């Protein structure tokens, strides 16, 4: 009888870990898709890949996991860049990847030609 109870506890713990892993992967997909849309780049493969997991203390004091995910994006369709997302639980901790395009000046403001009236 005790072995059945231990088996049930192990099964419940395995299911809880799998369920939290799926929720974190969905959150990572959401954050990477949103970052690519804001940076006006292509989110390649429409997926994220888990690269690391480690135990950590969550903000509420409970023990949880910090997961690192990798995703790929392209600026013009011919190149590939890798981005990285770090989640603590389902909370975004770090995003390294596409950034918003910023306009650049051809001339510094001090060297702009005078405007014509």
From TrEMBL:
Pfam families: DUF3301. InterPro entries: DUF3301. The keyword Signal applies. Keywords: Signal. Residues 1-18 form the signal peptide. This is Membrane protein. The lineage of its organism: Bacteria, Pseudomonadati, Pseudomonadota, Gammaproteobacteria, Lysobacterales.
């Amino acid at each position: 009888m005790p072995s059945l109870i231990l088996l049930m506890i192990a099964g419940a713990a395995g299911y809880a870990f799998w369920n939290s892993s799926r929720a974190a992967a969905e959150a990572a997909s959401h954050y990477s898709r949103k970052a690519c849309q804001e940076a006006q780049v292509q989110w390649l493969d429409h997926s994220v890949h888990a690269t690391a997991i480690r135990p950590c203390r969550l903000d509420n004091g409970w023990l949880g996991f910090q997961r690192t995910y990798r995703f790929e994006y392209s600026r013009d369709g011919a190149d590939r860049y890798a981005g990285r997302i770090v989640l603590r639980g389902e909370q975004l901790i770090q995003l390294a990847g596409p950034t918003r395009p910023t306009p650049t000046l051809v001339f510094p403001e001090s060297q702009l030609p005078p405007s014509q009236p």
